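To: structure subgroup
Subject: Chain for Friday's discussion

All,

I'm putting the inputs and outputs inline so they're searchable in the archive.
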Amino acid sequence: MTASVETHEFQSEARQLLQLMIHSIYSNKDIFLRELVSNASDALDKLRLETYRDKELQADTSDLHIEILIDSEARTLTVRDNGIGMSRDDVVNLLGTIAKSGTAEFLRKLKESQDSAASRDLIGQFGVGFYSSFMVADKVTVLTRRAGTDEGVRWESTGEGTYTIEPATDVADGTSVILYLKPADAEDHLFDYAAPSKIREIVKRYSDFITWPVRMLGEASGDEAPAFETVNSMKALWARAKDEVTDDEYHEFYKHISHDWNNPAETIRVQAEGTFEYQALLFLPSQAPLDLFMRERKRGVQLYVRRVFIMDDCDALMPEYLRFVKGVVDAQDLSLNMSREILQQDRQIQLIRKRLVKRVLSTVKTMMTDNEERYATFWKEFGRAVKEGLLDDFDNREAILEICSFDSTHEPEKPTTLRQYVERMKDGQEHIYYLTGESRQSIERSPHLEAFQAKGYEVLVLTDPIDEMWVDSVNGFDGKQFQSIAKGQVDLETEEERKTAEEQREGFADLLTWMTGTLSESVKEVRLSSRLTTSPACIVGDEHDLTPTLEKMYRAMGQELPPIKRILELNPTHPLVTGLRTAQSERKDDADLAESVELLYGMALLAEGGELTDPARFNTLLATRLEKTL
């Protein structure tokens, strides 16, 4: 070793990081090349900027590029650029010391991770820059020369705690990073980074859209030596002017990132400028994927930083209820490396997310008015997912309600928006009426609808499981409260009808009291109804009771619930109910009368799609009653 060669120790945290990376197992080591290409791209950006600032700087910027060279026999991989380069001090500061604000947090998180998947996520989250090279290389050599200087620098390390640094002559402009790859039969033999095809694949995946050309040697042709070929497209659609991109290009790009055969329903471009700049290109699919409601599905859009791919499914950028949205987000200043605290990333990510969600919802709203057919298809495919946002996205709840559509009793074949429902409301109507159930057919046959249909009140028909939950958590829409027609008291009566009802209640008082006692194990109250016109009885809940469907859902999930008693309402004009009143007043056989009341309750339970507690007893009672009529 000559006297000009200096040996230095890595700063303590750098040693810890190197050891953790070298001796831990990561299933995705490909990111080392992404980091090296990103560094090279940054060096090219800095040189171009420096030549603008310093007109005296002697630097050739006519062909700025990145080259990747592979020597399969020697098992070396070289990433070189003709960018700004580094001085000796730069090399010591940048390659020998990583004690910056994010490093300690990265190390802490990495040590806490107990499995390779969590470790892999952290690598992608924090970025490990140049040091990720030691995941795939036994030794790394850096040759670099700062633009405008004559002396080069050679840096070298095996990642074992020390590095050497010395002056170097005949160093080309920029920086060359030479990786002496680990043997092909090591644990990562499936990822042979001395194979050109593997390197091309990584570049296409992670660095396809960076500004500068990434070149590799192509195949030799006959006697001709192989020539360099550009392997990245450099075509970031989101960075081009709108009038420069055709619909076909958008569609092809969507198919590429989504693996969907169909064209998207809508294309959304977002351009944010100012103190925090980013661009986004989002797509609303035209058809729901098969895994839309599967737990193991992936969600989120692709995240880029200055056109460098960071992660595939960044779920932090899109909420769960918009998991079907595809696309890319490219931030200019988003820090995913160790130079910033993770908290800063979170704040920026949240700002992006907030803006993107608003744009997606406003796009769907525009679709409602500009293309009703396309909107109807979109809602049919994704409406169930969108309605999940009513439960957890409080900031955008009104915007979500604006784009929702529901079946209703107004036009059976055409869903209605809430805005349209409110515009059709009767004078003096204070609530938006709805009824939940397992199917439209069962709801249309429900006795709860009778008075509403007779009086011309529109009722929303809600059949999605999610409908059972959001209607209780949403206050209302446009100042109108949601009201289940199967809960609480319903007042549809005129003043005259109300007086008649009062008179009826007086005549039914004894029957109601007796029936309440007879059915005390099943119901909390028996009362007269103003919602029935043709059915003899129906079962309703108190205002804050769980619906039967929601109760079954909770029980199916293993949640123990106390027995929920509901209310039996009687139609005072139905012959069966008036006959019961007469029979009870004449004190006919109490046992037979009690069985008749039990049958009436069972009929009401079945009419709403409920389940009998003792079906066999119900059948026996019914058969006995039928036999007596013959």
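Points worth raising on Friday:
The domain at 404-484 is CATH 3.40.50.11260 (Rossmann fold).
Residues 125 and 336 are 6 Å apart (CA to CA).

D.
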